[in-house]
Every structure is written in structure tokens, then in C-alpha cells.
Specification:
About 15% of the residues lie in helices and about 25% in strands. By secondary structure, the chain is α+β, with helices and mostly antiparallel strands. Strand 1 and strand 2 form a beta hairpin. The longest helix has 6 residues.
Length: about 80
């Protein structure tokens, strides 16, 4: 099953869902799935429900590579407190 959240083009951005109401929105950053009029990113739900874009089968889906955490990454995230 192709789930947008597992795709390399998936992102969450702050967007207006109603007048005066902001929320995190799941969007696709694929250049072929942008709004054809404005060029803005479009919500994953809208793209998957329209066969002209990604469609229910997720024709632009690309599996996101697994992120690996190394010991160096963990060390760089450590904050040392000094008296």
C-alpha cells in the first residue's frame, strides 16, 4: 500500500483550513503535483482523489529512504551544561 506519509515528496506545512484557522496540512512537494494555476503545493488528500495528479494508486509515489541515526548525530545533539 502506498501511503503519502512514507513518500519522499511528503511534507507537513502550516496552512489555512478555514478563515482565521491554521493547522498542519499534509502536502506533496512533487513538481508534477503542484497547483496548475498558482504553482502552490496541494494537499495529499486532494491529489490522491484526482487521477490527473497522483490518483488513488499513487503514480508519483517514491518510497522515502530509511533515516539512520549514527552515534555522531546523537553526540552533536547533546547540550552540556556548565556551572
Amino acid at each position: 500500500m502506498k501511503i503519502c506519509r512514507d513518500c519522499q515528496f511528503y511534507d507537513r506545512v502550516s496552512g489555512q483550513v478555514a478563515p482565521g484557522q491554521l493547522a498542519l496540512v499534509d502536502v506533496c512537494t512533487n513538481t508534477e503535483c503542484k497547483n496548475p494555476v498558482t504553482g502552490d503545493v496541494v494537499s495529499c488528500g486532494a491529489l490522491r482523489s484526482n487521477e490527473c495528479f497522483c490518483g488513488i494508486n499513487g503514480k508519483h509515489y517514491k518510497k522515502r529512504p530509511l533515516e539512520t541515526t549514527t552515534a555522531r548525530d546523537i553526540k552533536d545533539n547533546v547540550i552540556q551544561l556548565v556551572k
